[in-house]
TrEMBL record:
GO molecular function, one term: DNA binding
Pfam families: ANT (PF03374)
Top-level lineage group: Bacteria
InterPro entries cross-referenced by the UniProt entry: Ant_C
Domain Antirepressor protein C-terminal intervals: 110-212
Organism: Acinetobacter larvae
Protein name as catalogued: Antirepressor protein C-terminal domain-containing protein
Length: 221
């Protein structure tokens, strides 16, 4: 389920109990806080006023954790709604769900078999699938590129090398926030071959950085 759909469910139930709706920024902060360390994908959604926002793809279990933060009455109704969405409504739906899950498992196993040797050979050198530059992230989140870089430096997520190139700290690479992409081989005037590593942000990293920025904004407010 998308976080946008979950927010609509929560706000609809809140309205029934005469509670104020949850704002999108507050909701994204809640997701980042509640699911810290868990994997969840982010994507961009188009709003009715032609602006864009960050949304997340969540499992039912993750939605349940987030819904647990609501007041007693709201929580009970939200969890009941999530439960109804998670349970097949007919035998035909159950069969289709089982078939879909079997297909997903088969696809995942095939991808693992294909990618595992490459991952071992490349180590932290990643391809360009679903990775972003800092500039891309800044545009998506809606923050100045220089401001985002300084924030990540201050929080010890990245640092500048002697020649000014940005590099991630090892723990952030290990946790999957950043990867290093190798440049083509460059031969200098002395005939020496060099390869530079360019820092890139993963899709998971984009969600983590978005959560960090939203949390900082919430503190500043």
């Amino acid at each position: 389920m998308s976080s946008k759909d979950l927010l609509e469910i929560i706000n609809a139930v809140r309205a029934e109990f005469n509670e104020k709706p949850v704002r999108l920024n507050d909701f994204n902060n809640r997701i980042a806080d509640e699911l810290e360390g868990e994997h969840y994908e982010s994507f961009v959604v188009q709003n009715l006023n032609n602006t864009t926002s960050i949304a997340y793809s969540l499992t039912i279990d993750q939605c349940t954790l987030i819904g647990m933060r609501e007041s007693k009455g709201v929580r009970k109704n939200v969890l009941a709604k999530l439960k109804s969405l998670a349970v097949p409504q007919s035998f035909a739906e159950a069969l289709q769900l089982a078939a879909d899950q079997a297909k997903q498992i088969e696809l995942a196993q095939s991808q693992i078999a294909t990618l595992e040797p490459k991952a071992k050979a490349l180590d932290v050198i990643a391809d360009t699938t679903n990775i972003y530059t800092i500039r891309d992230c800044a545009k998506t989140i809606g923050i100045g590129e220089r401001k985002l870089i300084q924030l990540l430096i201050d929080k010890k997520w990245i640092y500048r090398e002697e020649h000014g190139r940005l590099q991630p700290y090892a723990d952030k690479v290990a946790s999957g926030v950043f990867v290093n992409k190798a440049s083509p081989v460059v031969v200098n005037k002395y005939g020496e071959e060099k390869v530079h590593l360019h820092m890139r942000v993963t899709a998971f990293g984009l969600t983590r950085i978005t959560g960090l920025v939203e949390k900082i904004k919430g503190v500043a407010a």
